[in-house]
Structure formats: C-alpha cells, structure tokens
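Hallway conversation turned thread

IA: we were arguing at lunch whether anyone had actually written out Lipase end to end. Turns out nobody had. So, for the record, here is the sequence (367 residues) and right after it the structure tokens. Reply here if something looks off.
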Amino acid sequence: MSPADNRAAKVAVGIVAGGLSLLAAGVTGAVVAEKRAVARIWNRADPEAGEGFGHLRGRPVTVVADDGVPLHAEIDGEEEEPTGTTVVFCHGYALNQDCWHYQRRDLTGTGRRVFWDQRAHGRSRRGRSDNTTVDQLGDDLYRIIAATVPPTDRVVLVGHSMGGMTVLALAHSHPELFAERVSGIALIATTGKINQVTLGLPSVLGRVIGASTDPFIRTLAWQPGLVDHGRQVGRELSFLSSRLFGFGTGEVSAAVVDHLDTMLRQTSIEVIAEFWPAIARHDKLDALHVLQEVPTLVVCGDHDRITPIDNSEAISEALPEADFVRVPGAGHLVMLEKPQLVTDALRTLLERVAAHAARPKPSLPNV
C-alpha cells in the first residue's frame, strides 16, 4: 500500500470509528436518559402502587368459537342480587381483560359481568391467520354472549378500541340481536373506520408514520423471538412508549403505566402483526344504524393518539341519542387513566338501560 493509500485508509477507518463512537454515544445517552426518566416516574409517591393489577379473577368459562378456537371468559357478580342484566366487556388490541381492572373492581351490584380475552390475546388461544379478522371477532362475541348470558338477561356491551370494533362487527352480522337482546352499548376510545394512524404527530409526519405502520410491523414479525426478547429487556423504552401512546397530558401512576406495559409485552409481535391489517381495514360505519334504538354511551379522551376523538365525535353524530363523554387531557387508555369518570358513565348507562327495560328480552336462539 502506498503512503497516500495508507493515509486514505486511516482517514476512512477514523471516519467509521468516529461514526460508530457517535452512534454508541447517542444510544448510550438515550438509554441513560430513558433510565433517568423512568426512575423519576417510579420515585414519585404512587397511591396505586399496591393496587394488585391483573389479580382480579372471576369464574372461568371456556367458550369454543365457530372455528374451534377456545376463548377464555370469566364471570363476576353471580353471587349478587340479580338485576336482569349482564354486562360483557370487550378489550382492545394487544391488551386483555385486565385492562378493565377498575371497572371490574368498582361495578359491583350492577348485575352479572363477563370479561373475556379476544382470540390470541390473554388466555384465549390463537386461530388460523385467515380467521384473524374483525368480522371473526364479532362472531366470537356472539358465541361469548350465547355461552355466558342467561337467556332472560338483557345484554350490555362495553368495547374499548378494537373491542368497540368487535361490537360493531357483531351489529353488522347480527342486527337482530340488537333488536332482541342488546339493551345498552358503550363505545370507548374506538372508531367505526380506521382512516389514518397519526399517533398524535403533526399531520405530514403522522401520515408518513401511519402509512409505514403495516410494512414495519410485518418486518418485525419476521423475527418474532428476537423482537419479543428486545421488548422484554428494553423495559425503560417500552415503559416510556406505553406512557406516551397510552395516556394523555396529566400525571399517571407508574403502576398504571406498568400494568399497560405488561399487557402489551405479553402480546407477541406475531399476534400484533397478524391483527394489524384487519384493524387497518376496519370499516363498520354502516352498522351504526343498528344502534339507533339502543341506549349508547360514547367516551373518548381528547388527547387520544391512537383513535383520536374525531372518531368518537363521528360515532356520536351518527347516534344523536347517545351520551357523549369527552374526557379532557386523557389518552387512549381512558378507563385506566380516568377510571372513576368511566365507571360513573357506565353506571349512568346501566340506569338508562334499566329505565328502558319495560319487559324482558326474548331468549337468544341456540347457536
């Protein structure tokens, strides 16, 4: 090698080494910043620290979906005075039934309550990939109702995010059920149609990020074990992401954020990738007319980055008799962030349902 070539090689090595050093310093700095940010949150006094998230359990029931997938459900309130109403809670994407912790804890005396894990989430089993659709979730809900709700009970459906989509899918495929059995509906932080994911970012950047979500998730799914391992060891980044995208502008308990983060990390990247296209294609706005005669509650935080509040406003406009609760400062997990407000709104809905119950609803046909 000539002296000139040797000098050029040294310069190139120096540039590469310098670049790697800067990259390493940046990564190290980011990790240190994340750890410090999380430490500051965890060091605050936290009244929810001993809440026991994920430990509330009911009587377990296995419900077999129409494609043979076992679905896990739990029933609360069977020992209480019967009210003639069963409330069925449907959780959102990448979560499980424990997202309803506060409502499960506080809605005693309101009738039987059914909590279930949607397919491939929580304790429910995973089905074939071609059955990973919102329509299938609606069919699963139909089976859950048939298996867990007494024939003479009224049904109130509560859906958060993807769970709200599940309710609308059921309305689309079984409108007769809403004329005969379903006596109340709560749609929380959800949408009738996914238009564009922006994650709360400025419009141009948000559209770019939203458009790349599907291929990005599919790419991650190529190495699910590696990605899931990274999600487990990168706890600080995962925690901060859960805080940013799950909640709004106010102070949120570290224990609550950790509860959300735990549910998200328990959902494998393969399941997340498999469900995303179905959610992205979701369009059940035409099912809203089925809900016209049913007492309905619509709830959304005005800092929801996942299903922004204009989605809930569109649902409310299509259902002029619905009660619309706008929660200032709250994000997507509004039932964890502002639990008392959501629980009170659900109690009000159940009072409306009782007032509309002039006579028992007919029995659900056998399925």
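OS: looked through it. The longest strand covers residues 70-76.
IA: good, adding that to the notes. The chain has two domains: 1-43, 55-367.
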